[in-house]
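Entry, Tuesday afternoon. Goal for today is a structural model of the target with pyridoxal-5'-phosphate bound, before we commit to ordering more compound. Inputs were pasted exactly as handed over by J.K., no edits. I checked the ligand SMILES twice against the vendor sheet because last time a stereocentre got dropped in transcription.
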Amino acid sequence: MTQDQLKAIAAEHGTPVFIVDHEFIRQNYLSFKEHLPKVQAYYAVKANPAPEIVHTLYKVGASFDVASMPEFMLVYENIKHLPAKEQQDFIWDKIIYANTIKPIETLKALDRYKPLVTYDNIEELKKIQQHAPHSGLVLRLKVPNTGSMVELSSKFGCPPGEAVDLIDEAFKVGLDVEGLSFHVGSQCTNFENYIQALNLSANIMKESKDRGHEIKILDIGGGFPAAYDKNVKPIKTLARKLNAEINRLFPKEIQILAEPGRYIVATAAVAVSKIVGKAVRDEKTCYYINDGVYHTYSGVIFDHCKYPLKSFREGPTQICSVFGPTCDALDTISLAEELPDLEIGELLYSENIGAYSAASSTFFNGFPPAKVVHVNV
Ligand SMILES: Cc1ncc(COP(=O)(O)O)c(C=O)c1O
């Protein structure tokens, strides 16, 4: 989006405003498909659950990774008009419930849809057997998350050494393990994580086959890095490695799934905010803007992500601090931003802020989340 377009949207809708360009969402989805043609892409709704985004991805044929019942219903909204049989086929073929820990109420609600669900421990297996016995199971493995921006392996995934027993256990109690899954950590720029995870998965599949259980699905999770800066290697480089390793390690008939979240939406949004205060503290200029880490910039805290701030004004820059509007000192977007000398009332913006940002915005301190504006829908 050009600076003029951003200014025009801010003038029309006010600030803070979170602008989602659906053309980028479609392009990102299509580039994922182009580079990984054998992989069925399940958009991880958690990255940005705006119903408009889910609908755009539904229209281009995406599948969906949901991690809660409300996320499931967001996707379901798009298929509720279909005849019952088509709804059921969509849920079977295009939705995975990829949270390994599910409340009993959720399992009960899910069971009638017979979806794919993940698990990674024996207690969850017992719950699924009791409350959602019609589900298809996917066992999530713990794999290296080395160097990824967001680490997930301390919370999820069964140790590879326990995997075959957990698969065996599921079949013993009458459940069907259809797949294996893993997540290499979000914004994974160390592609070796994927290679190790693929090799671990292939070994577990072989061992499982020897025990009489053939696994048909491999879910390679999320982690596909967004192009936040020029140092991030492109999806093309990762895809070349993944395609080669998948061809080498797995039979042709294997079904490959992925759960990209960040890659699909990160580059599709821009946040525009207004300077509401200015002070000089310890000889450094501090700008206070009307968006912050309790709002669109929540990824600074939860996602360990940085969103450089830009101004619409040219001129010599200096190192400044940028704070959010709330009374909490944690509401600090950056202590080292290169900005020109700006006045109260001027606008700032951050690009590539579509993932894990508006998704975790709050109403803290009486400030509501930024208005969301969708363009090129
Ligand atoms: C189970 C699961 N799948 C997919 C994703 C999406 O990952 P990413 O945004 O890195 O593609 C996440 C993110 O936390 C996840 O927990």
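The radius of gyration is 22 Å.
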